[in-house]
């Protein structure tokens, strides 16, 4: 099916959007404190979820960043689109901006 085909126009169309971000944590203490504050103020978390979030932040502060990711915000103002499902995670990674492994253009060119 191409984008010009009209068959099944009334049926839902789902798109998987994959985004990869590399963020440099420049102040782990500030990020951790902000994440703990975010979790504390989150009215949608029940006590068990809140405790699990706090524990995760204490164990691995790099996971703190996940508490600031909001997929609803990413798609909130896009007309004709409704968020159907979202998952995300954050994890420490080895990153060398000089390495070809991290050159997004090299990966794109290799795929062509």
List the keywords.
mainly alpha, 112 residues, single chain, 36% helix, 4 helices
Q: Can you walk me through this structure?
A:
The protein is flat. By secondary structure, it is mainly α. α1 packs antiparallel against α2 (47-59). The protein is 36% helix and 0% strand. The two termini are 21 Å apart. The model has no long low-confidence stretch (mean pLDDT 82). It has helices at 28-41, 47-59, 71-75, 104-111.
Relative strand content: under 5%
Structural class: mainly alpha
Shape summary: flat
Query: Secondary-structure element order, as H and E?
Result: HHHH
The N- to C-terminal Cα distance equals 21 Å
The mean pLDDT is 82
Largest sheet: none
What gyration radius follows from the Cα positions, in whole Å?
19 Å
The helix fraction, in percent, is 25-40%
Counting DSSP E segments of at least 2 residues, the number of strands comes to 0
SS summary, helix count: 4
**Which parts are unreliable, with pLDDT below 50 for 5 consecutive residues or more?**
none
Short account of what is shown:
This protein is an all-alpha fold and 112 residues long. It has a domain at 27-72. Helices cover 36% and strands 0% of the residues.
What's the topology here?
Layout: H1 28-41, H2 47-59, H3 71-75, H4 104-111
Helix pairs in contact: 1-2
